[in-house]
Amino acid sequence: MTRRRIVAVLAIVAGAALLVSTASALTRRGGEHGTPGPGAALAHSGVQRTIAAAQEKLRRSPRDAATWALLGSSYVEQARVTGDPSYYAKAQGALTTSLEHQPVDNGPALLGLGALANARHDFSAARDFAERARSVLPDTAEVYGVLADALTQLGAAAEATAAVQRMLDLEPGVASFTRAAYDLEQRGDVDAATHALERALESASTPADTVFCRYHLGELAWDNGDPDLAAEHYERGLSIDPQDVTLLRGKAKVAAARGRVDEALAEYADIVRRVPAPHHLHEYATLLRAHGRHEEAAAQTTILSGQFELLRAAGGADDLAESVVAADQGRAAQALRLAEAEWGRRQHALVADALAWALHLNGRHAEALALAERATASGWRHAGFAFHRGMILASLGRTAEAAAALDEALRINPHFSFTDAAKARDALAGLR
Predict the structure, then answer these.
(1) pLDDT at 27 over 80
(2) Domain total of the chain
(3) Closest by alpha carbon to 145, among 154, 157, 135, 134?
(4) Taking the model in full, what pTM does it have?
(5) Which of 35, 116, 298, 309 would be 277's cystine partner, CB 3.0–4.6 Å?
(6) Which phi-psi region, left, alpha or beta, contains residue 77 (left: φ > 0; alpha: ψ -120 to 50)?
């Protein structure tokens, strides 16, 4: 399926009631593992009720495979809405029990295991479970959502697009439109991605879904250099759920970009106190370090290391995020080791970029450039990719190309990083 067909579908399909949960919809970042998704606070009580009802039913019918599958999938959702990876083991146990009671044609259990594998960043396993679920449930949209998430992160772009298209064909709603938006964004079509998210917002049937869409619209605006529009989406989402940490994080980013550093730091301090997820901790530490508060930044880094350990203990791993953190902290050898390990598992653009930067930090600039070029090959308007490519080109003495890449990074988003945006401006001035 082609991007043109997805755009055509987006243009002509009427909004529909959401039948596929947004719980399994991929976040816009591959490394925000353990972070509650947008709308999580509003979804929490509903998930708790589902879990309680399933547990009560299993007390009466302990061999009910369908209810075990529902319980397992609900635990995956509980991990998302709480940011607590300890629910992964509970999900694994319930889904395995479901398969023990119904080992053949148990599509819901296979689908749940696929969602769990995606949550743990085991994308190859997620793809395999989704394919097995598809053989049982060939016309179920959520199957293609789990499959698209896995294929996207594995770097299988054409196959991921086809899975998203099939999901759109089956159920054009919030979950499918947001996936289409991410697919289009990675191909550099920001206008179509925005349109897809607007269609998702039109399809939203619950407050949690509306918050979900507002967050993604805000992030797309932010990543493409429009903090005012981003702030509008974040604020409109917060008017529905004032405690949503993803929206509060967006609000903090905007405050930092507008020079309200104390406000941004206070917001981040509250966010990591409530949800000490790796992505939140890393951003907070980076903002602290950017403003000379190195001891406080080091304290957040210590907590961050502990969170990565908790994820590993829960059966997950995020070598990509750990590589990015190591690179930001000057641990070049470790950053390279982690990025190479992740690249061995999947060839997504985010991993190519992380590996390129790690190679550059280790003085292997020519190799780094090849990976940096691969990261940008899809056309994704990603300021971080352009910055890394520009700095690598500068190290190779290709001054004009380096300046063009750094200028591109700042045109895409002049506030793309609390630390690297300033480095890009300084490097560009030096090159000129």
Answers:
(1) no
(2) 2
(3) 134
(4) 0.88
(5) 35
(6) alpha
